[in-house]
Design a protein that fits this description.
By secondary structure, the chain is α/β, with parallel strands linked by helices. The protein has 30 helices and 27 strands. Helix 26 (about 755-775) links the parallel strand 24 (about 745-750) and strand 25. Helix 14 (about 365-375) runs antiparallel to helix 16 (about 395-415) and helix 16 (about 395-415) packs across helix 18 (about 440-445). The structure holds adenosine-5'-diphosphate and magnesium ion.
Length: about 900
């Protein structure tokens, strides 16, 4: 009855919100309470509980009605003006919260803290006690309905230490936690690494001090992040950081955090302080903060991440990303762990091998793999259920999740036993799966009913037979209901109204109802001695009786007692779960690990990936490599290609300088040949290998990469108001400044965003710098065929091209990467494929022929460029080239058939003038 009742807005027992006829300046008591609570939470929308609704008033109402598309009404007056109001029903609040949070709002949830009947006892004008019980912000969510099950939702705190000297670099401490799972980590970085770290973490909310938020240098960047909350400086106070952390974790000394730097401590303390603030003092079960070892993760900056479409595509979708292509996990926790591993691949070959051993174990045992995946499919998200229970925000279904999770963990431990010998990670997981006490699962299984309500206050979740006192209260309640039915029969007989009914609603409670035509009968003697009139509606009349009133009180007290007992049982079970949280968390982590390992194995088998060989060399040798995403999207078979960036063999021409570093491949070939695909597939193979996955290749041997860079020429970044070419150069500069011998660099058509000669010279110098200074392994795709000449001068530069075939004037792409240089661009053939009008194609061919003839007769000067040697930079291309280009372009633009004799003569003069500059 309770759950189905329609929401009613008028909380009869609450004082009037604002007396309509009272235009005076005095606020009503409810409004006074509202204003006081709102004043304490000025930066939040206030959800003010009134009966079955959360109401919003004043400006909040205007903001929310616009954001949610709900009706704005008014209710009463304040200071002589209408009070704007809108409301959302309590049972749909999550849905609206979700939308407000997604739009970047923060919401303070204000509840009624007592029964309205209590308030009434204090006097007619008294107000129900209310207060904010929780702040809902993007980074501190726990509800499944507000969270993406398959992604972590991190709250990130950034603390800064100013440089000691004016121009010294600032350092940043980062702490990030997911309160829905308890993960908590810290790291340190400098300004140049900040954006990359934040891109990796992808926080749902960022907290910084007021000062940092206002910092002239950082503010523009911070504004590009989705939800940044500035906080007063005490939250970021380094002096009290250790104490606040120790308090949170209830440890006497801060030794537990001894290895953390002061900056990390500051950021971590800011996190827990903010969590306590938003949870109003409740403490979600966090793991103690763990430092992320510097250099333990493959460094991937923001542009590279975006460009390689690791977690989402350039257009922002998950579909089409590497993550979605490789995700075969069957649990939400597994999906989150997979995303974490992909966001931060490792650099330690031993740690990588540990993960690969686990995948290999599942690859090698198809039965264990299938059984594991079947069992995991039935496993609920226990980490998040545990967090909700700890925050007293859990329901009966969370208890059931723990029950099923523990049972699944124990069953799984048995299945994977035989793999434990092959993989230390699996062995460890198996041990963790056995940690939760089976007795706890048994207790939960005995207590919980089959069908569970979402909310504990709905009752009915404890199984009959579990608790004697509860069974007794329930039978009393149910007995009384039978008595109601008997009473109805008796009244029907007594009044001779066969259609007489006893009904119930929230306003009247139990009442006798007859249709209007029978009403008079009950109003007259002798029946009017028994039946007391309550309400007359259009078609019905309602009465009560003394007997019914007594019965109602009995039913209510039995139901109240039953619910009270159930809630006690809930608390007891919930506390038992919280008491076992360490073991449950360990089991939850083990489940996620096993999901990831078995899912990666499933992927490897399904798509015939191989185990990469990872070591500390500088090798990069991929045979039969494929693009993990493109090959799945492609209908046609994907053409596999080799790539070898390993240092030239030690036996190569004796002790060449630099012979020990990795190679650079310079890839030429027409548009659409597959250059970009080839570049990216190799970067993705490195990422996959180092995250501990098999790779799409027939063989791969990779000396661990420390940093991965990927850039595409002329990428658009108009949103940040920088020209595309500027972006390209800023990004290229970052690579040239940061890439080490151990890095892998992917450069795709750098220099495309400017005039030909500019671009060519920049590409030229960039290759030289990579080869001589960075000495990194690199793949460089270009349409500047002139660059292939560099191979004869740079010993570790290798020319490769993507083969095409010309067939009856058309071009056929073979997507095959072979040694050598492309001879031409086939741009016109591609244009033809794209459907340019044939007149334009023909005209372009004529112009091209003219230009090529011209090129052969004119020395382009590039062969004459002094090659890079220490100290001597290549000269910029001759400015005469530019003039020559202008002449050729002017010539190409002329159509003699279109010119009058006079125009032809003028054109000739103009050309001669341009040529004069060339002499
Ligand atoms: P480019 O960078 O040389 O212009 P792309 O790498 O963008 O070429 O590739 C163009 C298209 O060719 C891709 O969209 C893909 O469909 C196809 N392609 C690329 N490489 C392969 C391959 N190895 N096998 C099959 N198809 C490929
Ligand atoms: Mg391309």
């Amino acid at each position: 009855m309770d759950a189905a009742r329609p929401p009613h807005r008028d909380d009869a027992s609450d004082g009037p919100l604002a007396a309509a006829p009272e235009p005076s300046a005095r606020a009503t008591p409810v409004m006074e309470q509202y204003i006081e609570i709102k004043a304490a939470n000025p930066d939040c929308l206030l959800f003010y509980r009134m009966g079955d609704f959360y109401e919003l008033f004043f400006e909040d109402a205007e903001v929310a009605s616009r954001a949610l598309g709900i009706v704005l009404t008014k209710r009463g007056k304040h200071l002589g003006r209408d009070i704007p109001m809108c409301g959302v029903p309590v049972h749909r609040a999550d849905e609206y919260l979700h939308r407000l949070i997604a739009l970047g709002h923060r919401v303070a949830v204000c509840e009624q803290l007592e029964d309205p009947a209590e308030a009434k006892k204090r006097g007619a004008r008294s107000v129900v006690r209310r207060d904010v019980i929780r702040l809902v912000t993007p980074g501190t969510l726990t509800e499944d309905t507000l969270l993406d099950a398959r992604r972590n939702n991190y709250l990130l705190a950034i603390a800064r230490a100013r440089a000691s000297s004016a121009d010294g670099p600032s350092r940043f401490g980062l702490a990030f936690l997911d309160i829905s799972t308890g993960e908590f980590r810290v790291a340190e970085c400098d300004r140049s690494g900040l954006a990359a770290e934040i891109a990796r973490i992808e926080p749902g909310e960022v907290i910084v001090s007021d000062a940092l938020y206002a910092d002239a240098e950082l503010a523009p960047y911070l504004r590009t992040l989705s939800a940044v909350t500035p906080l007063t400086r005490d939250v970021f106070d380094g002096a009290t950081a250790e104490r606040r952390l120790s308090d949170y974790f209830a440890v006497a000394t801060s030794e537990a955090f001894g290895t953390l730097s002061r900056l990390e401590l500051t950021a971590a303390a800011a996190c827990v302080t903010y969590v306590q603030r938003t949870q109003l003092g409740k403490r979600p079960p966090l793991s103690p903060p763990v430092r992320e070892a510097r250099g333990a993760a493959l460094a991937i900056d923001q542009a590279t991440r975006a460009n390689l479409e690791l977690m989402r595509t350039l257009s922002g979708e998950r579909r089409g990303s590497l993550l979605s292509a490789i995700d075969r996990t069957v649990t939400a926790a597994g999906a989150r762990l997979l995303a974490q591993r992909l966001a931060a691949p490792l650099t330690d070959p031993d740690a990588i091998d540990r993960r690969l051993d686990a995948v290999a174990a599942f690859v090698g045992d198809a039965t264990a793999r299938q059984e594991t995946r079947e069992l995991l499919k039935l496993t609920p998200d226990i980490a998040r259920a545990l967090a909700r229970l700890t925050l007293a925000r859990g329901g009966p279904r969370d208890l059931a999740a723990i029950r099923d999770g523990i049972a699944a963990a124990a069953a799984l431990a048995g299945r994977i036993e035989r793999l434990a010998g092959a993989s230390a990670e699996v062995a460890e997981a198996a041990a963790a799966l056995r940690r939760p006490e089976p007795a706890l699962a048994r207790e939960l299984a005995a207590a919980l009913a089959e069908e569970l309500p979402l909310l504990k206050r709905d009752g009915g979740f404890v199984q009959a037979g579990y608790d004697a006192a509860l069974d007794e209260a329930r039978s009393l309640r149910d007995e009384s209901r039978k008595v109601v039915a008997q009473l109805q029969a008796r009244y029907a007989e007594q009044t001779a109204v066969r259609a007489l009914k006893i009904r119930h609603n929230n306003v009247l409670g139990y009442f006798v109802e007859v249709s209007a035509q029978h009403g008079d009968k009950l109003f007259s003697a002798p029946l009017n001695a028994t039946f007391i009139h309550r309400q007359t509606l259009a078609g019905q009349v309602r009465f009560t009786t003394a007997e019914l009133g007594e019965l109602e009180a009995r039913i209510a007290s039995a139901a109240d007692r039953a619910l009270g007992l159930e809630l006690e049982i809930f608390d007891r079970l919930s506390n038992a779960v919280i008491g076992a949280r360490e073991a449950i968390k360990a089991a939850a982590e083990a489940l996620a690990t096993l999901d990831v390992s078995s899912a990666l194995a499933e992927l490897a088998v399904e798509r015939t990936y191989v185990r990469p060989q990872i070591d500390r060399s500088l090798d990069f040798r991929v045979q039969g490599g494929r693009h993990a995403v493109v090959e799945q999207a492609l209908g046609d078979p994907f053409v596999a290609n080799d790539c070898d960036l390993s240092p030239p063999a030690a036996s190569a021409p004796a002790a060449q300088v630099g012979g020990d570093a990795g190679r650079i491949w310079l890839l030429t070939g027409p548009n659409m040949a597959g250059k970009s695909t080839f570049l990216r597939q190799n970067a993705l193979i490195a990422v996959l290998a180092q995250m501990g996955s098999y790779v799409p290749a027939s063989q791969a041997r990779i000396g661990v990469v420390d940093r991965l860079f990927s850039r595409v020429g002329a990428a658009d970044d108009l949103a940040r108001g920088r020209s595309t070419f500027m972006v390209e150069m800023v990004e290229t500069a970052a690579i040239l400044n940061q890439a080490t011998e151990r890095s892998l660099v992917i450069l795709d058509e750098i220099g495309r965003g400017t005039a030909t000669f500019d671009g060519l010279s920049i590409a030229w110098a960039t290759i030289e710098h990579l080869h001589e200074h960075n000495r990194c392994r690199a793949l460089f795709a270009t349409h500047f065929h002139e660059l292939t000449a560099l191979a004869s001068k740079l010993n570790r530069l290798h020319n490769a091209t993507v083969r095409v075939k010309e067939w009856q004037g058309d071009v056929v792409f073979l997507h095959e990467v072979v040694p050598g240089a492309a001879d031409r661009s086939y741009g016109i053939q591609v244009a033809k494929l794209a459907g340019l009008p044939s007149s334009v194609i023909e005209r372009a061919k004529t112009v091209l022929a003219a230009l090529e003839a011209d090129e052969r007769s004119t020395p382009r000067g590039l062969d004459d460029l002094p090659l890079f040697s220490a100290g001597a930079r290549p000269a910029m291309p001759d400015p005469r080239q530019r003039a020559l280009e202008a002449v050729l372009a002017a010539l190409a633009a002329l159509d003699p058939d279109d010119l009058s004799p006079r125009e032809a003569l003028e054109a000739l003069y103009a050309l001669k003038q341009k040529v004069a500059g060339l002499r």
